[in-house]
Amino acid sequence: MLRCAQSSAEEEAVVDMGTARILFDKWQDSYAARMDSVRSSAIRDLFAAASRPDVISLSGGMPDVASVPAFDVARVAHDAIEEHSALALQYGSSEGRPGLRLIVAELMAESGVRLGPDDLIITTGAQQALDLLGKIMIDRGDTIITEGPTYVGALQAFSAYRPNIVCIPMDDGGMRVDLLERELERIGPGGAKFLYTIPNFQNPAGVTLTPERRRRLLELTHEYRVPVIEDDPYGRLRFDGGHVKPLKALDDEVVYVGTFSKIFAPGLRLGWMAAPRPIVGKVLLAKQAADLCGSAFTQVIAEAYFSKTRWRRVLQELTRVYHERRDAMLEALEEHFPPEVRWTVPQGGFFIWVIMPRFIDSNTLLAEAVEHGVTFVPGDGFFPDGRGRNCMRLAFCYAEPDAIREGIQRLAEVLEDRLELYRAFLNAGALPGESDASTAGDTRALGG
After folding, report:
1. What are 152-186's pLDDT values in tens digits?
2. Alpha carbon of 22 to those of 2, 17, 27, 276, 406: distances in Å?
3. Assuming Cys at both sites, which of 68, 206, 339, 444 could form a disulfide with 344, CB separation 3.0 to 4.6 Å?
4. Range of the domain at 22
5. Do residue 216 and residue 292 come from a single domain?
C-alpha cells in the first residue's frame, strides 16, 4: 500500500514502499538548469560512514588539528577580542584585512613569489576562490582544462557554470605536457578559458609536477593564450626532496589559490587568491555579491597566530606527523596489497592514488569495504566523465599509523576476494585476450 505524506520541515512528497523511500521535490521546476550538472561530493557523502567508531577512515583529507596547540589558539582569540573588538566584530573590507594580506605576501615571498597586499584577496577558504574564478570566467560551453584526475571540489565549483571540461592524463611526474600540447593544438589559440592545476602533491593523485614540465606548461599556455590557475594547498607539507618553485614564481600572470586550512586550521575557513590586478578586481565584484566580506574575526585570529606564535614549529611537527603516516600507509600497501595493484608515492601532502585492474569497480568495492570497517574515495568522482572507476584515493593525513595499517589490511582482504575470482576465470581461459599486463592498464597513466 502506498502512503503519501508531507514533511512539515521540507514540504516534500514521500512515498513509502516497504523499506524504500522515494522523495519527490516539488521545487524541481524552480532550479536553474546549471544545477543539473552539479554532483554531490563523494567525500562529503562518506562522512556518515566514516564517523562510525568501528570504521577506519582513509577517505577524508582532514588536517590533524589536534597537533595545533589549543592554548595558543585560545590566547590569540582572546587577544582578538580584547585588543581589536571594534574591528573583529564588525564588517570588514571585501578584499580582506590589510594585515593578513601582508602576512600572505610574506609567506609567498618565501616560495619565490613577489607581490604586494593589493595583488591579493582573502577568501572564505580556497574553495570560494575557485567558485568565484569560475563565476567570472566560465560561460556555458566554454572549454577549461584540468588534470585527470583532479580535485572534486574544483569540479563542483566549475561544473555549476556548465563548461566543457577536458582532462589531461598524468603520470608520476604530474600532468603530461606532451598530451597537453596535443590538446592545445586541437583546441587552438584562445580556445580554452583557463587551465587548472594542482602542481604540488596533487589531490587526488599525490604526484608533483616536475620543474621541466612546469616550464613547458607555462610556455604552452602563453603560446596558446590560456590563463593558468594554480591551486597549492599542500605546498608547505613536503616530506622528501627539495623545494620546487610554484608556477606563480615563474610567471606573474598565473592566478594562485592558497589556503590556511592545511597550515593552521580549516575551521577558520580562510584562503586567498593572488592574481593580476584586473582579475583581482573582477573577483572582488563577484565576492561582494557572494558574501559582502569575509569574517573579520577569523582574520584577526589568523593575523595574531602568524605573528605572535611559534607557528613554524607547529607546521614542522604537522609535517613530521603526516610523513610518518604516509610511510605507514606505503609500508602497509607494499605488505598487503595484491601484485596487480599499483599506487603513487607522494613526496608530501595528504593522498595516495591507487590504480587497480580495469575490471574492478571501486564503487561496489567501497560497499564491501565499509562492511569490513574501512572507507576510501572511489576514483570516478575525480573525473567529469565517469573515468577512474578502477581507482581509489587513500588519505593518510587523519588516522594514526596503527589504524592506517589495519585499514589497509582490511582493504587488501576485500581486494583479494575480488581478484581471486578474476584469476580463476583468467586461468580457465574464460576471459580471452586478457593478461596481467592488460588488466593493469597503461603503466604510466593514472586515470585507470
Report:
1. 999 999 999 999 999 999 999 999 999 999 999 99
2. 11, 8, 15, 49, 37
3. 206
4. 4-30
5. yes
